[in-house]
Every structure is written in structure tokens, then in C-alpha cells.
Design a protein that fits this description.
single chain; 5 helices; mainly alpha; elongated
């Protein structure tokens, strides 16, 4: 069997659930469990949470615009289909700005709806993405872009 085919299959096994759906699930869990945890009012929590949500949306939109500009795949379900390693714009600061945006949105929702639930579910969201999404994507990027990806990985952090 071809090594690239094996790598592709291993990546596809892990990257089956779209990250926005994962974020939505964790957001549901934060909201659903607010009756379980004691209510905590955070002064200016609504403003700060809203700011985080808006910032997350802006970061995601910035990343999507770059994917469209460079005409490469935006879908995270098959990272082996990427045709370009994007290292400009928001990607100079984070290797995963779309996931960073989802994290900010989930954190903002948590601050507004259920801060204690957020303390539980936001770290689980990060762990899930690191293991089931980012690690397989980085394997695919290394396979596709080799030294260029290694250099990029040395200079730009995974999250921020």
C-alpha cells in the first residue's frame, strides 16, 4: 500500500466531524448545563462575552477570505486536499485562526450563559480539537508541504 494513502486514511478517520458542529455541540452543553451549576454574574460579562464572540467571528471571516483568495480548500474534513499553505494575514499569528475564532465564540457564550460550565467545556473543546482535528491536519500539511510547513510551524504557534 502507498504511504500517502495510509496517512490520508488515518487523517480521515479522525477528521469526520466538522469543527463548527463540534463547537455548536459544546455550546449546547454550556447552555444546557447552566441549570446544574450555580449562577454567577460577571460584571460586564455580557459586554466582554459579546466582544469575544464578535472578535471570533472577525477572525474566522479573515481566514475564510484568505482561503478564497488563494483558492484552496476550506473544508477541514479532508485536509489532504489543500493546495496552498497560507502563511499571510491572520495566519502570521496563528496556525489555526478558524479554530481560535470558534474558541473565542464558545468562550464568549460561556461568559454570558454559564461561566462554570465554560470552565469545564472550553478546555474539553480545546483538547478535542487538538487531538481529533489539528494533529491530523498538521500531519497532512507536513505530508503536503514538507519543509515549508516545518518552517511555518517553527515560527507560528498553534493557537496564538
Amino acid at each position: 500500500m502507498d504511504d500517502e494513502w495510509i496517512v490520508s486514511m488515518m487523517i480521515n478517520i479522525k477528521t469526520k466531524i466538522p469543527p463548527p458542529l463540534v463547537a455548536l455541540t459544546f455550546g449546547f452543553l454550556v447552555n444546557y448545563t447552566k441549570s446544574i451549576f450555580p449562577k454567577i454574574e460577571i460584571g460586564w460579562g455580557g459586554v466582554f462575552g459579546s466582544f469575544m464572540i464578535i472578535t471570533g467571528l472577525f477572525i474566522i471571516l479573515s481566514a475564510i477570505i484568505l482561503f478564497k483568495k488563494y483558492k484552496t480548500t476550506i473544508t477541514p474534513l479532508n485536509p489532504s486536499n489543500a493546495t496552498k499553505l497560507i502563511v499571510h494575514g491572520i495566519y502570521k499569528f496563528s496556525r489555526n485562526p478558524m479554530y481560535l475564532g470558534l474558541l473565542l465564540i464558545l468562550s464568549g457564550i460561556s461568559i454570558i450563559q454559564n461561566p462554570i460550565g465554560g470552565l469545564l467545556f472550553v478546555p474539553l473543546f480545546i483538547l478535542y480539537l487538538n487531538h481529533f482535528q489539528i494533529a491530523p491536519e498538521e500531519s497532512a500539511m507536513l505530508n503536503l508541504f514538507k519543509d515549508d510547513f516545518l518552517k511555518y510551524k517553527e515560527n507560528v504557534r498553534r493557537w496564538i
